[in-house]
Design goal:
Largest sheet: 4 strands, mixed
CATH architecture: 2-Layer Sandwich
Order of helices and strands: EHEEEEHHEHHEEHH
Number of strands: 8
Strand order of the largest sheet: 1-2-6-5
CATH class: Alpha Beta
Strand content: 15-25%
Helix content: 40-55%
Radius of gyration: 16 Å
Structural class: alpha+beta
Distance between the termini: 19 Å
Number of helices: 7
Number of domains: 1
Oligomer: single chain
Length: about 150
Amino acid sequence: MSEIRYEDVGQQVQSVFESIRNQHFPELTNAKVKIVFDLKKRVSDGKIILGKIKRTNELEKFFTVEEAGSMDGYDYILFLDKKAWELGTPEDHVRLVRHELRHTSVDDSNDKPYRLRGHTIEDFHEEVELNRDDPRWAERLAITVQDAYANEE
């Protein structure tokens, strides 16, 4: 029997998300975002993935209509590495969610307004400024999470 890879986040994560959306991303006010913890290590290009956001496809929208409370289902799914959340500081939580939301883009002139965008640099210009007190926060957290996964093996 295989283990479930994802689990729903709790109210604390939802509250962090809502606060960040309200403060930094008012254009996402009407976007439906499903947030889940990823329970397994995800690596890309040799780097541990702390979080990821994706636009939902038509099948995912269909399966999430009821939960989202919308005939269109969820617009995005935000994946957060559970270990990163457990091992990170409250400021890391804010930085992680805020970084992932920087990948979103809204074009209200389109019938499918929610989009994704890549980095403007290895990070985002806005995030560099907001994280000037801890510019290597993601690297620090990634090392901590990687060590935690290694200790489980």
